[in-house]
Amino acid sequence: MVLEIPITHPVLQLTIVLAIALLVQSVAKRLSLPGLVGVLIAGMVLGPGGLHLLPREPVVDLMGSVGLIYVMFMAGLDIDMGVARKNMQETISLGIASFIIPLIAGAGTGLLLGWNGPAALLLGALISSHTLLAYPVIQRLGLLSRRSVVAVVGGTLLTDTLALVLLAVVMQWQTEASQGQLGGFAPLALLLVLVVLSLLVIPRATRWVLKTRASQAEKALYVLVVLLVLSSIADLIGTEKILGAFLAGVCFNNVLSQRDVLHDHVEFVGSMLFIPIFFISTGMLLDVSVFTQQHQVWVMAGILVGLVVGGKTVAAWLVGQHFGYGLQDRLLMISLTLPQAAATLAITMTAYQAGIFEEILLDAVIVLIFITCLVGPLLTQYSGRRVPNGKYQESATGTPQSPRDRGR
């Protein structure tokens, strides 16, 4: 039997992907580097744009999509609601600033480049969003209850929602103007309905399920099903599945915080399986030839990287300064808002398929995703290890606060 390249056998694909994730993360750990960054690079080298040893379909693409959902789900699941409520002003401030400042910078740059209004707005929208790619890093460092981290986690939901709603409005403006001005706001209205129904129903249903004699495995499967259902509904109503995933995490937050074993079961599935494959999937999006052959792509990618770094840095710095955050906390906020992945790619692909963006911008966005996904976790690890008081964060009143004890 001759082994064909690229490898098309699904079981062999999964075997190779898991072996790569295990090997690369083990080596990276010995080198004191974030393991997921190594997995990202491995995906680029082995994927269609590199050695073409592995295709993205069907295994990597499917499980990578679930991995992205898991990243946002764990963000909502592990956020300390008590700290979030106490620091709601900081969360909202960062969410709005992290959206508005890059949006203005991106849209202004698009107009200076001679783009039309819709293209310029969507350029601003794609760089205004961000993905909590470095969430596993801050989780491992025990920083989930720091005020700066809570502000970023909560603010991400607001930032990405605004970016995706702007995408819906612009696309409606472009293609369905005859339906009236409110058409583009339909996804937001449906999302609000989904949020209300979920927060009313899911916590109650979960408490009932947990009282049954079902095994821990069955209860964990129930959580996974609800996660996928909410993500699918959010996608179907015209927003993005990551918002449904974050909502699922929020719905299970209080219930699972008192169930250490079940929480660990749910987290284990994502951390050991889906999330590493998501990083491999993201790395596979990049064609290595872009680094050597397409100079125009690099120019555009440089512009995008500058806009993202500048916009996110200004937003995090201003909000951090206003609320009295220290230098390392501001750097931590910047590092967490740098990675561009889920919403960025969704906006770019939608606009490209509609003929609003050209192919050169699509390639440049892939480079942007790779660079920010590489730099973000590294900067998060650097700043996270240097924040004062380690796991603990002084509240605004000077009372020490720590992450919820899950028995770890």
Describe the structure.
The structure is a single chain. The chain is mainly α and 408 residues long. It has a single domain, classed as Na+/H+ antiporter like fold (Up-down Bundle). Helix content is 74%, strand content 1%. It contains 17 helices and two strands. The protein has helices at residues 10-30, 35-46, 59-78, 81-86, 88-112, 117-128, 135-141, 147-175, 186-211, 216-236, 241-256, 260-284, 290-293, 295-322, 327-337, 342-353, 359-384, and strands at residues 393-394, 400-401. The protein has a two-stranded antiparallel ribbon with strand order 1-2. Helix 3 (59-78) crosses helix 11 (241-256) and helix 9 (186-211) packs antiparallel against helix 10. The chain is globular and about 60 Å long. The protein starts with 9 loop residues before the first helix and ends in a 7-residue tail after the last strand.
Précis, in short:
This protein is an all-alpha fold and 408 residues long.
Give a topology summary:
Blueprint lengths: L9 H21 L4 H12 L12 H20 L2 H6 L1 H25 L4 H12 L6 H7 L5 H29 L10 H26 L4 H21 L4 H16 L3 H25 L5 H4 L1 H28 L4 H11 L4 H12 L5 H26 L8 E2 L5 E2 L7
Antiparallel strand pairs: 1-2
